[in-house]
Write a structure and sequence with these properties.
CATH topology of the largest domain: Rossmann fold
CATH architecture of the largest domain: 3-Layer(aba) Sandwich
Radius of gyration: 19 Å
Length: about 290
């Protein structure tokens, strides 16, 4: 306003908030060679794992200029693709693996849906009997296809950490995002997940894990949040609180542009924290 009133004679430059946002965007945009894989985990259902996958993926896809995809690896009828308003295909990960004609990006794109943010989504098999047999070998085959065409690959995991596919997910992950809620039982389950990962040789992933506290209802007590944050700060990379947002509470089609500013910023901060690890990206044939 002062800039306008003085005819441009007084200009204090960008505000602190503007500078901080620019820094976030710069961090998210940083280039890397190869592909980077993120596993989004939770052994307790209903805490916002799929929503977090969409929020993180949308933040990355909105800011970056390369390709970002989220894969639904939930064997119990995952809902990731149902949250994307794109009816151009009903294809699933199983259809992708059965396709003998994958030669270029357009061939893979026939099997994916795209959100308004440019995030692509590869659906899981909707028949539970068939989805259950999607195991480690299938997951590795899926990653072997996608790594040629996508720069950032997110996996929306199921809640069964002992499921066969999880071995492949964890072996191939460059980073993990652990999702929980401020509820004590959910936080205990998340903490037990970190314990299990350490006990099974995944301590490197735990040390740099991004822990997401997703508020499913308004007004989570500050004291409860502080205690949960304090617990996870002592054993993981960083903590991200996703505030309650009416758009997320609907559980319907996800649109990054419809989020409240504070919610969008929280996902951008999560994306920037994940992007800080892009130096671990695997060199591959690159996306084309």
């Amino acid at each position: 306003m002062l800039y306008v009133l003085t005819g441009g004679l007084v200009n204090f430059g960008p505000s602190r908030a503007d500078r901080e946002r620019d820094e976030l965007l710069e961090q998210i945009r940083q280039p890397f060679v190869g592909d980077f894989r993120v596993a989004v985990l939770s052994i307790k259902g209903g805490v916002g794992k799929t929503t977090t996958t969409l929020g993180l993926g949308s933040a990355l896809a909105t800011v970056r200029t390369d390709r970002v995809i989220a894969v639904d690896a939930n064997p119990d009828r995952g809902t990731l693709a149902e949250r994307v308003l794109d009816a151009s295909t009903s294809s699933t990960v199983r259809d992708l693996l059965r396709d003998p004609n994958i030669r270029r990006y357009a061939d893979v794109r026939n099997h994916t849906r795209m959100a308004p943010s440019r995030l692509e989504v590869l659906a899981s098999e909707q028949d539970p009997a068939v989805a259950e047999v999607f195991g480690e070998t299938d997951y590795r085959r899926t990653m072997d296809v996608l790594r040629h065409y996508y720069n950032v690959i997110l996996t929306d995991c199921g809640t069964g950490i002992m499921h066969s596919a999880m071995t492949g997910v964890l072996d191939l992950a460059d980073a993990i995002v652990l999702v929980t809620s401020p509820a004590i039982d959910a936080a205990r389950s998340a903490s037990a997940t970190l314990d299990w990962l350490v006990e099974h040789g995944r301590g490197d992933l735990v040390r740099d894990a991004q822990v997401v506290l997703s508020a499913s209802r308004p007004g989570s007590p500050a004291l409860k949040l502080d205690k949960v944050c304090e617990h996870f700060e002592a054993r993981s990379g960083s903590i991200h609180v996703i505030p309650f947002d009416p758009h997320l509470a609907e559980g319907a089609d996800f649109d990054f542009e419809l989020l409240k500013p504070g919610t969008a910023t929280a996902y951008l901060e999560l994306a920037a924290a994940v992007a800080a690890k892009f130096s671990r990206a695997r060199a591959s044939h690159g996306a084309y």
